[in-house]
Task: structure prediction
Amino acid sequence: MRANAGRPESRRRALIGAALREIADRGSLDVTMAQIAARAGVSSALAHHYFGAKEDLLIATMRHLLADFASGAVGELRRAEGPRARVSAVVRASFAADQFHRATIAAWLAFYAKALSAPEAARLLSVYQRRLRSNLVHDLRAFLPRAGAEEAARGIGAMIDGLYLREALGGGSARPAEAIALVENYVDLRVGRGKA
Result:
């Protein structure tokens, strides 16, 4: 019995991974539980057993993406020394290799669209956006007045979202390092203006 203790969690992770890949392949949330289950190598009935409705699996997948991002951001922030380095840490975490690749980018775009019609998706997206803004504003305040820090944080968030959108729609070809450099250039411009 003890040997199987991790099996349900392992199957849940496999279904979430399969959902991400299926969403990426289709470019939307227009996927079925049967398609996701087949990709995970389990029956549709088992997928329903672990998640109930497809909506529940999609929300769990969104939570997984957000948790991965948060974990990466925390790791980057722990290594950063000083406010400017912490802003850079958030930017790096936003374009980490596990975040800025085709499957994850497609999933983020699909979840942004889902947030327009699903209250739980909208709530999760709002939590992510508030945390991003809060982290950025906190450290930008070392260089800018409150209003300037808020404005710079909005600009950084918009650049991050915009680079993801371009990649998702096939209009971009940025590698993570290039995306980071673009956002860092904007931060340097804003911080420099705040010091003047």
